[in-house]
Amino acid sequence: MARRVQIQLVIVGLLLASQAAAQLNSSNILVSYSFDDGDLATGPDTFSVFAHAKGTVALSLTSHLSGYRSIEIRDVAGDGDFPELQGYFHRRDKGKLFLHFALMTAAPHEELNIALAGPEWFTLRKDGIGFWLKSQDGYLCQVSDSMPKKLFLLSPFVWYVVNVAYDIDRGTYDLAIDKEGQPKPIVSLSGQMNAPNQPGSVVDKFSFIGDKGEDTSNATYYVDDVVVGTDEAVVQLPFVAPGRRKLFIDYWNESQRRLRSQPGPLEVIELSDLGIRSREIQLLRDEGLWDLLLQLISGKKRRADIPRDLSAESSQLLQAVDFWKDACEAMTKGEAKAALSGFEKADQLIPSGKIYGMDAVLALAALGAWQEVDNRLGRIYSIWQGDLRFPVALAKIGLARQNLDEAEQWLREPAERVPDELGRSLLRRLRSGEIDENTLEALRNRFPDNWTDRIRDALIAEEYFFVLLWKNQTSEAQQFAERMLVRYQTLGIPSSKWLERLGDVLFLMNNFSGALERYDESLKEDSRNTGVLVKLSDVYFRLGDLEGERLYREKIYGKLSQE
Amino acid sequence: MFRSPFVSSPPHLVSLRLGRSNWIVTELLLLMAMTCLGVSVQAAPIETNTVQTLISQRKVDELKKLGPEVLPVMARLYESSNEADRTRIAETFYQLGWKSAEAKRVLMKDVHTQNQYLRLQVQWALGRVSNDVDVVEVLLSNMQNDANPLFRDKAACALAYDQIHLTEKQKVRLYQGLIQSLRDSKRDVRRIALLALSIQTGQTKNFNPDAPADQREASIREWEKWLEEYKSNL
Predict the structure, then answer these.
(1) Residues A84, A136: one domain?
(2) N or C: which end of chain B has fewer CB within 10 A?
(3) Closest partner residue to A432 among B5, B10, B226, by Cβ?
(4) Which of A380, A397, A432 is the last residue before a domain boundary?
(5) Is A532 part of a structural domain of the chain?
(6) Residue A36, min C-alpha distance to chain B (Å)
């Protein structure tokens, strides 16, 4: 009840403070915390608390603007970390956003930072920090147009109420700040450029911290009545469990699907993939360029490092690798158009590098250019037919087309052919995801006749499991995961990944006690797997054990308790 | 590209940590050192051999535990080492990120070396051991004038990412130099100067290093106007 009253007060404040403010009601509110009620669960849809050193983020009874509690953020210089309250809201990429909060500092000369930011997090760039307040030499400053601008000298133990009307499209904001006991705002600015002077800068989170990691601040300050609202009604899903509007496993499942539906470049397993065979290897060695080639492949060197005085053939080989490497990075960032251009340049320079053509096809798939995908696939089919990565590539294309049947069809046969033979430490490394040049070389030497089967195992099994899961073939997914688990355990290979997968499928089959058992086993094998921690939180929630739910959730998102 | 291990953590958890680290513009820095200051009176002198071993084994965390008193020892070691070892020590100065006049003094001696590996490590480390104006000056000069494009490029990298101790006021010289470099006759210098500026400020003012001179000049005037406003806000 107290919270609801506070929200009303804040809305009035917002309307008064900003000429641009639209009518706000509960459907326009993205976030509201007065810190008075008990429902302050941390989580991906509320906020995280970071307090891993001496600094703290705690509920405070001693200082508050409204109700009976606020948040106290206390930074300690030299403790190796900084405390933080980081909150999340529905991503906003257009329209107006209104931010309201109250702030009181005990030590004006100690640094504090408050920001609204987007998917590029707390960096000064588009989609990074949009709105930024910081204290500097006792002054509260706004960072606007990439420069700190003084607003006023902070007084200790005085509440300031900050209202921001942030215009996402224009990249500007209006700022009004009231000081406790003063009848008029002490700051009233309009049309301020946002922090990096970037129109259209997306926002989805806020943060309250001391210093930015320099570890020099001894700030203690209080925050109350945080509200984020919009100029249009927002449909938000209800909370399904503390701190989250979806279960962690659903977030995870969706993100896996999103990740795997975005075609990425195919794995290179031979230098010949790059058009580099024994003759080219000798040529590069003769010209003293072998190390440079390896460094270009690993990304340690770039185009600028390629010398000018080398043979035309070596130059083309190295430039192709460089274009390809850049394109791979672009693809990973979701810049499929730039990636396509890079792969095509590499392909033109070295047509015998078969990976270039295939990666270009995958970039086209990412762009949804299906006709061109089919045309080009037809052209390269003959050189790829029989390659163990070919079904993987086709499955990736199938997933990008949202065609799960097609993806499954390509993966089923090679996935079921995963060998049962006893392995060695090499297989352990391979199956643990350590696919690198050394492993591959050793693998080729150890298993000259069937080393490709091992690669297939590592590349295909998980992809196949997920496709089964997404086709709702949970029984088949469970059986497949159990088979993989038995194989791994027989071979003496760490099996935490497949234990987790079994837990996942059991959870989705509503067998929560079975899932709990598998997740526990997985965590015993690999205690660093934070993904299992949040899934355990889901399991305990489903089992009705709210203490267990909270314990595991707070291991990741932190906790808010009274000082 | 070799396949990395399958992601087992939800991406939002991964990015949570990434995002948090973005706030972190510097590492532990001097205050880790300050905690050591209290015990320094009674602490045993740091053995050169110990430091040498830790550097060669890349045990930066162990070096950090020794506190800032390790810096003069490292500087002395640097002066008596060959180029390969100096490269490694420079890299360690970079990783420590602690201000040190001694470190700056010895690193500056190699800021024009033609040894590629040493030069890059020195250029990167300088801004992490000092905020003196001559460090910014020498990096700006290398960025504009070095005969080797690689050294120019990496000097710009250092100016973009590694000037971690500069105050807002000290950044004026950095911005001035970068904006001035937008007028350079070499296209690559204009490009890397813009890149450093955009990393520092998040904006480009529509400067295009390949555009005709008059168009470039218009953007440069925007930058100069911006710098004047920046100075007026100090």
Answers:
(1) yes
(2) C
(3) B5
(4) A380
(5) no
(6) 26
CA angle A137, A142, A146 (to 5 degrees): 105
**Residues of B whose CB is below 8 A from A148:** 168, 233
* B198 CA: distance to closest CA in chain A (Å): 8
Per CB-CB distance under 8 Å, the chain B contacts of A128 are 22, 202
Chain A positions touching B202 (Cβ under 8 A) are: 123-126, 128, 146, 195-198
What ipTM, to 2 d.p.? 0.78
Asked if A225 and A276 sit in the same domain, the reply is no
Q: 3-state DSSP call for residue A263?
A: coil
Q: Do A534 and B3 touch (CB under 8 A)?
A: no
The CA distance from A206 to A204, in Å, is 7
Apex A29 CA angle, A91 and B16, nearest 5: 35
Measure the CA–CA gap between A335 and A98, rounded to whole angstroms. Answer: 31
Mutate to test the interface with B, among A50, A81, A147 (most CBs of B within 10 A): A147
Task: Report the residue of B31, B37, B128 to disrupt the A interface, i.e. the one with the largest count of A CBs within 10 Å.
Answer: B31
> Which of A353, A380, A407 corresponds to the end of one domain?
A380
**Within a domain: residue A22?**
yes
Tell which residue, A193, A73, A76, has the closest CA to residue A129.
Answer: A193
- Chain B residues in contact with A251 by the CB 8 A cut-off are 10, 12
Residue A154 lies in a domain: yes
**Number of domains chain A is built from:** 3
Residue A151 belongs to domain spanning:
2-236
Q: By the 8 A CB rule, do A373 and A397 touch? A: yes
CA A43, A129, A3 angle in degrees (round to 5)? 45
Question: Quick check: helix, strand or coil at residue A154?
Answer: coil
Instruction: Kindly give the confidence (pLDDT) of every residue in chain A, 563 residues in length, as a single tens digit, with 9 standing for 90 and above.
Output: 333 334 444 444 544 444 434 456 777 889 888 888 767 889 989 999 998 888 999 999 888 888 889 999 999 998 888 999 999 999 999 999 999 999 999 999 999 999 999 999 999 999 999 999 999 999 999 999 999 999 999 999 999 999 999 999 999 999 999 999 899 999 999 999 999 999 999 999 999 999 888 888 999 999 999 999 998 777 777 788 888 888 888 888 888 877 777 888 888 878 889 999 889 999 998 888 988 898 888 777 787 778 878 899 999 999 999 999 999 999 988 899 999 999 999 999 999 999 999 999 999 999 989 888 888 887 888 888 777 678 778 878 888 877 777 777 776 766 666 544 434 455 555 545 454 556 556 656 655 555 555 555 555 777 788 888 888 888 988 988 898 888 778 767 778 888 999 999 999 999 999 999 999 999 999 887 888 999 999 999 999 999 999 999 999 899 888 76
Q: Which amino acid belongs to residue B131?
A: N
Q: B26 contacts in A (CB within 8 Å)? A: 212-215
Residues A360 and A393 in one domain: no
Minimum CA–CA partner of B149 in chain A: A304
Domain ranges for chain B, please list them.
45-130, 131-234
CATH 1.20.1530 is right for the domain spanning B45-130: no
Strand locations in B135-200, DSSP E?
none
Q: Are residues A287 and A326 in the same domain?
A: yes
Nearest to A213 among B26, B202, B226 (CB): B26
Whether A86 and B19 lie within 8 Å, measured CB to CB: yes
Q: Is residue A129 part of a domain?
A: yes
